[in-house]
Design a protein that fits this description.
The chain contains three helices and nine strands, in the order H-E-H-E-E-E-E-H-E-E-E-E. A hairpin with a 2-residue loop joins strand 8 and strand 9. The longest helix is centred in the first third of the chain and has 32 residues. The chain starts with a helix and ends with a strand.
């Protein structure tokens, strides 16, 4: 009975953290999609916000090492649906850095499939658009069941379209219709979203 009780508690903790991981991945990606340009400072603020979302669970382990990793990337497709990594930033619970350096290991959701019958579009992917990809991983170590399970890596990935349009379909010449610029300085931008004109 004691083993069942302890196992139930550990399982409940793991499931609760897993929900937090999914929520964090969605939240950081969603915050980025509401911009057309991001400075280093604003990106770091968004990534740091992940620690508040994952709370009350810690972002560092018993040895002081980080157990949380958050990465936000922009992936764009050209007229043939070829995907390219535009930029990527990460936060490991204590420091910031460059996130992804390639698309290796990143699975493209089938729900994002676009043009059908384009011979040059091998992945049948959306043409001339960009996606914001939020990736979160959390190294969960059960307090009492560690000797049995070891550290469990809880992960989730969210793909989202940017909410703001930086160009119109009529004069778009590449993946610029949905695009979020990442720069080291603040950039003034405007956003035409549906019928609402807003400054970003």
């Amino acid at each position: 009975m004691l083993v069942l009780l302890i196992g139930g508690i550990e399982l409940a903790h793991g499931m609760a953290i897993n929900v937090k991981v999914s929520t964090t991945a969605h939240a950081v990606a969603d915050m980025v999609t509401q911009n057309t340009s991001l400075s280093t400072t604003s990106m770091q603020n968004i990534l740091t916000g992940a620690t508040a979302i994952i709370a009350p669970y810690p972002v560092t382990g018993s040895g002081g090492s980080s157990v949380l990793s958050v990465t936000v990337s922009e992936v764009s497709s050209d007229a043939n649906g070829k995907l390219t990594l535009q930029w990527s930033q990460s936060f490991n619970g204590s420091t910031f850095g460059v996130g992804r350096t390639s698309l290796t290991g990143l699975t493209i959701p089938t729900s994002l499939n676009g043009t059908v019958g384009n011979a040059a579009n091998l992945h049948n992917q959306n043409d001339q658009v960009s996606f914001i990809v939020g990736e979160v991983s959390y190294a969960y170590t059960p307090n009492l069941g560690y000797t049995i399970t070891g550290t469990i890596n809880l992960t989730d990935t969210v793909w989202m379209f940017p909410r703001c349009s930086t160009d119109s379909p009529a004069n778009s010449s590449g993946p610029a219709y949905y695009d979020i610029k990442y720069t080291s300085s603040t950039t003034t931008c405007t956003c035409l979203q549906h019928l609402q004109y807003k400054s970003c």
